[in-house]
Amino acid sequence: MDFVSPVLDVASLICNCVGQRAVKVRRLPQNLNSLRSAMEELKNLNEDVTERVEREESLEKNRTHVVDRWFQRAEAMEKEVNELLAKCDEEIQKKCLGTYCPRNCRATYKLAKIVQEKMDAVAALQTEGNNFQEVAVPLRFSQVIEMPLEKPVGLDSPFHEVWRLLQDEQVGTIGIYGMGDVGKTTLLKKINNKFLTPNNNFDIVIWVVISKPTNLRKIQETLLSRLQIPDDRWKNRSEDEMAAEIYRVLKTKKFVLLLDDIWEPFNLLQVGIPL
User: What is the pLDDT of residues 216-231, one digit of tens each?
Assistant: First the structure.
């Protein structure tokens, strides 16, 4: 009996271990259905969070980094789960569950463990997505970006004249023209930097270099970037759609737009600039 008891203990331990694995394997089809359902719920939640984000972004807000990362993880999870489901379906088609072939069952047991892990991961994503206190924060852009500028010479008179006009509520557009190298860009830079002083009454000052040939899309990209509008809201969009996005933001702002190096006329409204 002294020899039999240890053998029985080992046999009992082995049977218990095998039994637990067998249960996991038998439950695989049921767990796969549960995983499919959980993934559908996560996709629905993803759509709900997306709608929340889009509503907030329409109010001149940026999605938070936490939410952006959650979207990325949810997208990656959907891909991983789809691949896993396909692999499990293929394993079940081999009738491993009926034959209990040791090699096949070992592989199926590993899949069953992964399925359980994915179910837990999907549940964690659902919990996180359901508990977002905020999904977006107000846009934060620098009111003025200082331009490098050497001490200007002989520009005091035109500077004071332009600055006076900028304070006039009846003036909407000011043109500075002349031959090359007479100081137009320097004058614009001085005006730009003047807005660094407190209490200038403008929400934002925007500097755009036009050059030639005039490229409306490039101008729009500069404006969208300066306004810190997320790339995914305008990348690969048409010029009309980009103009609408620019107009939506600027129409609520008191802004100064400084356009340098203009060589030919172009339509500001077509770019998205409110007139």
Answer: 999 999 999 998 887 8
